[in-house]
Amino acid sequence: MHKIDDKLAKVTARIHQAATAAGRDPQTVQLIAVSKTQPAAAIAAAYASGQRRFGENYLQEALEKQIALQHLPELEWHFIGPIQSNKTRAIAEHFSWVHSVDRLKIAQRLNDQRPAHLPPLNICVQVNIDDETTKSGVSLAELPALITAFAPLTRLALRGLMAIPAATGDPAQQRKAFAKLRSALQVLNLQGFKMDTLSMGMSGDLESAIAEGATFVRVGTDIFGTRA
Ligand SMILES: *Cc1c(COP(=O)(O)O)cnc(C)c1O
């Protein structure tokens, strides 16, 4: 598992470099290790190297790994995959963050099902930043109405926005997409929202995302290797 340690160190160095280049404090960019399809042992290896935040896309798989790793303190679980309504209860019970909320009905269910003994569930709204027909996420046009409707949902903490832009190797195109998410957040905050989170950037584009203000980057492949 030395490999995971080396790869984590490389990703962390990239984050530091990108933040510094952008004139930002590297501490303001947090790394979510995306462990979907990876075994619990890979998460344990990353944990041994100091990683605490993990992102999962598939509920059943995530719950199994959470049970296998329940002896490890301070693990912070982020749900980042598409959400079906019949999965909201377990997500509300077993995660600290959900990055992929894009419908009011899902938000209402997460709110109603968040256990009383836990703090409010941290939420990012997923935005379909390039208006791709195949992708999850609310459009920029529908975003203000959606988050306005979250006002009564006091068991949720609306923290910010998440996006997965169309894949491109061109840094200028990457930055353009991330800039759209950044300015959407700024405009909404000027209208009275108090969001502090931009969840954007993955293995192939984290530098561009950090240049545009990412506070979480979600990195899988460059930590754990290619997925089966
Ligand atoms: C898989 C996944 C990632 C990680 O992507 P990599 O290219 O492997 O770094 C990030 N965010 C989401 C939502 C994902 O599904």
Task: List key phrases describing it.
TIM Barrel, binds pyridoxal-5'-phosphate, eight-stranded parallel sheet, 228 residues, 17% strand, alpha/beta
Structural write-up:
- The mean pLDDT is 97.
- The chain has an 8-stranded parallel β-sheet.
- It has one domain: Alanine racemase (TIM Barrel, Alpha-Beta Barrel), CATH 3.20.20.
- It has 228 residues and is α/β, with parallel strands linked by helices.
- It has 9 helices and 8 strands.
- 40% of the residues lie in helices and 17% in strands.
- The longest helix is centred in the first third of the chain and has 20 residues, at 2-21.
- The protein binds pyridoxal-5'-phosphate.
- Pyridoxal-5'-phosphate is lined by residues 34, 36, 57, 80, 164, 202-204, 218-222.
Bound molecules: pyridoxal-5'-phosphate
User: How can the largest sheet be summarized?
Assistant: 8 strands, parallel
Looking at the overall shape, the CATH architecture is: Alpha-Beta Barrel
What's the CATH first level? Alpha Beta
Low-confidence stretches: none
